[in-house]
Amino acid sequence: MSELLMATYKRLPVTFARGDGVWLWDTDGKRYLDALSGIAVCGLGHAHPAVRDALCEQAGLLIHTSNLYGIAEQERLGAMLTARAGMDRVFFANSGAEANEAAIKLARLHAHRRGVENPAILVTEGSFHGRTLATLSATGNRRVQAGFEPLVQGFVRVPYDDVEAVTIAAENRSNIVAILVEPIQGEGGIRLPADDYLPRLRAICDREGWLLIFDEIQTGMGRTGRFFAHEHVGARPDVITLAKGLGNGVPIGACLARGAAAEVLTPGSHGSTFGGNPLACRVGRAVLETIDAAHLVENAARQGTYLLDAFRESLAHVSGVVAIRGRGLMIGIELDRPCGELVVSALAAGLLINVTAERVIRLLPPLILEQPEADQLVRELTHLIEGFPGHA
């Protein structure tokens, strides 16, 4: 069957048949510890009863009607998200890329209504915002852009975690209208900026009249030990984009806005056939309720601190380890050389990890991770890194 699929993915030699919590089983019955959770998607783990029950119940009632009509579950989830985020309104989409597309369109429309003819959005090097034409143009990675030129115009790129570069851009470009930035860069290698970076961006936006947009697609939904990563530093955005963990595997994205930004999109200016349908929103509500009831944000903070400390101790003697960084259950272990081979070695050992930015082992385990599983993750991954060629 793989010959019938477009070759857009370099798939690992495994197919999973079922999951339970932090565990997955392949078609041969082998068990794996999932330290990636579908790339920060399955925060509640696999086959969670709350998600299962929400899916089954809603599928028996109503799956789809379209946004031509009122959708009660959309309104319920919207109320929960806006209250949690301190936002005024939300647009529901199907993915993170679509959520970011909505934010980009919102920023441009807001600018045009203020008389800016050719608005530009400031973005950063090393970022990742999606693979649609606009979001890959915003992304700071030439590898995902190559071959898709001409790119969408209207983006000004500066180094990440460099406030001075933003200030210089503001002085030289009168058409900048917004900043789109990840509170922590995920695909860029689990890069955490200085604690004052986001607050200083907020101050610049206030001074210049720009919108501040936080891409919380990978960092949101409790992943970093706060519900939103920007809460760690107290910087309040005008727009937040979400996806991944919001549906625990059911496709859903969200673009939230407050103040003037919340009033920009009007009937006919944007839309989605499937976005915010009853099924996706019912699951999103179940995810939010479970995160609260099970205190999973607190667990992410606790287990994340434990993992960082444990890895720093267990890998202290390994000369090839450059850095161990992260926040909550979003952890990167940077080596001094490309280490993509470790993904295959880990798979053989029954462990699911990822390598990003060529040299950074990325760990995004489910928020339900418990102590025995955390210990197993540290033990097995440490062993793999110790045995990686060129390290001692």
Question: Could you write a compact summary of the structure shown?
Answer:
Helices cover 35% and strands 17% of the residues.
Descriptive account of the structure:
This protein is an alpha/beta fold and 392 residues long. It has helices at 37-40, 49-59, 72-85, 96-112, 133-138, 142-145, 163-172, 197-208, 278-293, 296-314, 341-348, 371-386, and strands at residues 16-20, 23-26, 31-34, 89-93, 120-124, 155-158, 176-181, 211-215, 239-242, 253-257, 321-326, 331-335, 351-352, 354-356, 360-363. The strands form 3 sheets. A 7-stranded mixed sheet has the order 4-10-9-8-7-5-6, with helices on both faces. It has a 4-stranded mixed sheet with strand order 1-2-3-13. A 4-stranded antiparallel sheet has the order 11-12-15-14, covered by helices on one side. A hairpin with a 4-residue loop joins strand 2 and strand 3. The chain is globular and about 60 Å long. The N and C termini lie far apart (42 Å). The mean pLDDT is 97.
Query: In total, how many beta strands?
Result: 15
Strands ordered across the widest β-sheet: 4-10-9-8-7-5-6
Q: How much of the sequence is in beta strands?
A: 15-25%
Radius of gyration: 21 Å
Number of helical elements? 12
Distance, first to last CA: 42 Å
Helix fraction? 25-40%
Sheet with most strands: 7 strands, mixed
Order of helices and strands: EEEHHHEHEHHEHEHEEEHHEEHEEEH
Shape: globular
Mean pLDDT level = 97
Structural class: alpha/beta
Q: Uncertain segments of ≥5 residues (pLDDT<50)?
A: none
